[in-house]
## 1
Amino acid sequence: MSNTSNDILEKVTTGDYEYGFSTEIDMEYAPPGLNEETIAFISAKKSEPDWLLQWRLKAYKTFLKQQLPRWQNFELPEMDLQAISYYAAPKKKPELKSLDEVDPELLKTFEKLGIPLNEQKQLTGVAVDAVFDSVSVVTTFREELSKVGIIFCSISEAIKEHPELVQKYLGSVVPQSDNYYAALNSAVFSDGSFVYIPEGVRCPMELSTYFRINAKNSGQFERTLIIADKNSYVSYLEGCTAPSRDENQLHAAVVELVALENAEIKYSTVQNWYPGDKDGKGGVYNFVTKRGICLGNHSKISWTQVETGSAITWKYPSVILKGDYTSGEFYSVAVTRHKQVADTGTKMYHIGKNSKSRIISKGISAGEAQNAYRGLVQVGPNARNARNYTQCDSLLIGDRCGAHTFPYIESKNNTAQIEHEATTSKIGEDQIFYLNQRGIDTEKAVGMIVNGYVKEVLEKLPMEFAVEAQKLLAITLEGSVG
Amino acid sequence: MLQTDTLHTKFLELVKSAEAQNGATLLESRQAAFKRFSNNGFPTIRSEQWKYSNITGLLNDALQVPVEPLAVKETQDAGAALLVKLHAPAEWLTILTINGKLHTIQRPTGSKEDNLQISDVQDFLLSTEDDGDNDTVVQQAINKPFSLLNRALFLHGLQLEVKANSQVNIPVHIIHYYTGIENTFLQTRLQLKANKNAHLTVVESFIADSSCKNVVVNHAAETLLAAEATLDHFLVQQLNEQTNLILSEVVRQEQQSDYKNHVISLPFARFIRNNLDIALKGTYSHTDMHGLYMVSPQQVIDNSTGINHLRPNCTSNQLYKGIVADKGTGTFNGRIYVHLDAQKTNAFQKNANLPLGEHAVINSKPQLEIYADDVRCTHGSALGQMNNQQLFYLLARGIKQEIAVKLLSQAFVNEVTETIEQESIRSYVADLVEKALDQM
């Protein structure tokens, strides 16, 4: 390897995390520990109705029966769930009437993160729900959205104001018993976003939630529920950051999407939790369950994700293609460096007839990181004419990283047509040479090649996010990626 | 289902009767293997490797584990006639085993082949736990449940060894013939060793006749290619619905060796599981893995392959194709593993499946696990019906539907059979495949 490449690698492995600051703010914590009292405490703090408390307690019982999964391709660190605080909130309870009443420290935090909470300063027309540790701080543009009947608020509010919707759909896509972390989330979930798009409405702006973990020794367990009624459309964005801390923090979210007849949900994530330092100390464990169901015919769900943060990312945004003529998409870029681990992919369950799915996954692994794509394409016995296309490519930068592909293809119907292809390689020396010859230095050349490599996925992001994602990729692979 | 306790009783009986005949090393190896086997017992569908194949019905309670060599009806003189009946090509060197036991060796006239040693495997084992082979991948492969059980309980086996710097010019045909056995869980074994710069071609045929009832054959093979050795290996499985086969082969390759493997699983056995684990332990080695599985209704064929690139500059190429009839289950599970040291690896893997009936079940799991950066690894998997346009083209020319389907199926499998370089072996396999296509 040439010297320049070595220099670039050096930079890749030493780049800093930009959002590592923490906010000094008066916080209120639940005492650490996981038990029925904690759950009752959270429920009481949020003055929840009794049905939800019972629902949480049921989930807790399920959780006690669950065991940690053992099939993963990385070493799952021991985690003491009793040492974590399950509720952390800024003390000054923000009343949501006006932004002026929000703690200025909080506003400053989000401003520093580049999140526009002040509607006047808004240019982009993105409605934001800002979640700080366990509570939603503020949701912008609510009034404008409510004019067309769209409900966009924190899930805590939705529980109070729209219990019928929440009760109907909560846990309908990701059941409490789905997996270890989904059961834990169901028991102790704190806050998150709720979106309801009524029949025939095309959401006029991008909806966005920004998650920030600030508190020490706490976990974030948010719960997001999005329901798109018949003939509606919504594009939803999610971003996340956390301060640099030496301890590992747990983030175990559950996201449920429901698309009714002819509806379309586009869900985009730019995940940039603190990845830990270059020795692998600290960082967020991002163990998330995300699943959508295309319940009605002709509905569509599309997941796009750019994963650059977290010490360990372990998630498989999935789509259940229940209706006929439904469509599921998954576009992913996962970048890992230092000692990061990403085990991510998707599951496409073809149940309805004439359903289609498309999977594009791009992994970039640098330093000593391990990057795995794990996916499932399942075609049920009645899913006639199911169609799937999967492509997963991995790029290796450095000789101590790993890239893995574990696709599962299961078909029980002969009319299915499934294609899967994957490649793993490093950036071709001939490609760099070609660009060098045209006067482009190696660093820029690597950047161009990587940009071209991920372009197919970034194109799927809403414009506002695509810019952010590109910036993020540049920072993450600083030095090597233009 | 067969219980580990039952097996243990049998194992003790076997040890008792074998004690007098075998050396202490073999006995120790048997004991160690059984101990390891009983730690985990038989795999279940919860185990990742056996996710798609449930063996509880297969290993039923009626099965008996023989503890001493099975009686063979066929007299020594009957060997030649039997070989004719089994369509053994006369120009090959043929080794016939009956129910695992060596029966006849037939050489074509004029051939000497004195560089090939054929012996009883009981003499020694290619690899024991303490032979210093510390490669984790090899250890993992020989410690898979059925390999361990075979090592502990095998009664018969065959060993073929080619002398260094020599070639065996004609194919060596091993016919594993199963006849007249009922409710038997049989453990048979084959060891192949090609010494430095040696060349050998081996064709193994697994044939069962209709007098077999409820038979499970657990066949284990260990293959060793020394530096610069080349070995062409063909496994052709023609069994009936009363015979099941679990095959485990572990291959080790030293530098600049070339191993070519073909596994042809033909329809009508109730259950076939092919485990193939290959370790490229020397630089500049090459491996070809070709597989064809033709799954008849109610049949299960499960292929599990692992190619382990442990040293730099090795290449591997894999092509597995399956035709699955209605209510049959065809599985392909292929793993390419590239070790940290295995820079400049070039690995390719392709799996294609053709479902013929509405309820054909197909599972495909191509995997890449890569820890070195300067590599090129690619895999692809495809599943889909016949091309309607092609079918239409044939029908429009007055060709009957069944014949058109057969023609297109034949074209689909030809990609595999065409990779067979030796003319005589290609036509031997192609004939069998064509007959099988007629019956599917």
Note: Chain A has a mean pLDDT of 81.
## 2
Amino acid sequence: MSAVQEALPAIRGSRDATVRRFALTDSIFHGLTRAAAILVLVLLGGVAISLIAGAWPALSTFGLSFVTTESWNPVTEKFGALAPIYGTIITSAIAILIAVPLGIGIAIFLTELCPRPLRRPIGMAVELLAGIPSIIYGIWGLFVLAPFLQTTIQPFIISVFHGIPGLNSLFAGPPYGIGLLTSAMILAIMILPFITSITKDVFDTVPSVLKESAYGIGCTTWEVTRRVVIPYTRIGIMGGVMLALGRALGETMAVTFVIGNAHRISTSLFAPATTISATIANEFTEAVGDLYTSSLVALGLILFIITFLILAIARYMLMRIDARTGA
Amino acid sequence: MSTAASLHQSRKRKNGVMMTLCVIAAGIGLAWLALILGALLYKGLAGVNLAVFTEMTPPPGDAGGLLNAIYGSIVMTIIGIVVGTPIGVLAGTYMAEYGRFSKLTTVVRFINDILLSAPSIIIGLFVYELMVRPMGHFSAIAGAVALAILVIPVVVRTTEDMLNLVPNALREAGTAIGAPRWVVIRSVAYRAALSGIVTGILLAIARISGETAPLLFTALNNQFWSSNLNAPMASLPVTIFQFALSPYEEWQQLAWTGALIITLTVLGLSIFARSLTGRREDR
């Protein structure tokens, strides 16, 4: 009894020390994880600040005319971003036009039509398309797709639309193979997996009861999809499309191979053009003079702002559908 | 009666047309994958020989290999993973464990998702302004940092998701026997979520091993063997970019072979990563 009482303070002391040690290590670990989380914010902030700092010489020299002029002349140091911005928007828009119907079609196929044992393998194959590095699409586009378009499809389209006003300037020759339309097609292949997998995921969130009640009153599969599934998942699909648009706008390597790198705005979809990212990738290491480099960074800043806004809207939409399903 | 029947017919016909279109869409998607992989195998395999793995990148018009580029890619990928993974895992841990309901977590999750899909060329510009410009020259270490920045969001995302899947009863059991929180996280939560976190790291490796844009003006390229981290270093993607756009046949062949190597690596990594988590879902 007395021996225990004598030992008690020592035990209590070592216990207190252990608890203190636990509390200390725990607060260190807590601080460490918190610092890492804050570092993610600092990264994005750092990206924004460094781009603004790097772009400042160009922006202060050219002002607003930087985004409204087409000329891009390293010799006279006159730089305008209109041609790359135009190329970026046109290629991404066409890519979305091609990829969205295809992607939604594949998602409907996977959720409604595909035999069950094939769903996982096919779904995985489409997602594997998303994992292929963009440079592979680029080399494929340059050596396989572009020659094919140049020798077969483009001459045919040019001859068909030759006499039709409006369309003949949209599809004016000569057929280079590379250019706006080829880039848009490569982009469409690249964003297809994103649209498909997100659309499939949001289709899976539709409660079976809703679909079953529509089938119960005699709707066909298409009517169920068109009147029940798509209206229910509209925000999610829009989010997926915006996410894919963000990808397409910023995609660099695949486009750099097949866009042709010409700083001019042409009405023909077959003409070589350029995009923001392709311009940076092609010219940055060769840029001489601070104003040239700064103009390229300014292009990067414009791309950063556009994709940031698009991605923020996409995430907001996807968050809304997540909140509704409680996932 | 006949109008009802014809309405029924037209509805069925419309359904048939739309569903056929969906099947065609799936066919196009799969055919595209087959076309790309087919061309890659056909053109890439033609150039596979021992020299690819034992010789340096050649000058124009000469035969050679990709040894220095493969070595550079491996080195920068490893450094990128070693730097990026701990930061990503720690940040993910904060979001799932200490700060699961804090405002900071919501903000970080939003920003992280944006970083996840931000154009990688922007990250290249950032690292150029951050490291290359102050140092005055291109370097392998700048390339590795750019890759690390791409690793972080992938790892953060998967770590948070996987830790959120760990049942709370496990954590409570740990706490009930008197373990402090960080011990619970380390020996209970991490262990339960291990396969998921490893999947995230594998996916991150798959992502950065094919990245070209962030290396273009950080690590640049190098025609010769270099293990100096403070000097420009060759990498497989940048070499492919340079060789594919060249007019020399030997270089173009090497580009195809390099593209095949990268694709097989990336596809292998992603299939392996998916099989790790796939087993979890089936359970």
Note: Chain A touches chain B through 87 residues (CB under 8 Å).
